[in-house]
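If you are new to this repository, start here. Below is one unmodified record pulled from the training split, so you can see the exact layout before writing a loader.
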Amino acid sequence: MNTEFQRVQQTKTTHVMLIGSYIIMIIFFLLRIRTMPPQIPLYYSRASNDEQVADTFYIVVIPLLSLLIVALNGIIVKKYFSDNEFVKKIIYYINNSVIIILTIIFVSILLLVS
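And here is the target side for that same chain:
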């Protein structure tokens, strides 16, 4: 009973964090859209400056990536680790870390370019 309650609370917390991060990203995007250049530095791992830039609409990749990772982690937990509380906790912390890190990356890119 107690573990079921904790699982539901963790799922709610992750969903609230995901929705909150989307709200933050949308607000920053709407505030910065007028001053954004046509291309933004999105691919920092590439060598030259020309390869690092992408069109502005590619910034949508970051929120979609966070949703994809959280959804895949949820599917993996339900399918393979439904009875393992340790793995559930690890995935919970991974999901929350991914949400926070990708939100910070999104906001920092927008603050840098505009």
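Two things worth knowing about this chain: The chain has a mean pLDDT of 87. The first strand starts at residue 39 and ends at 41.
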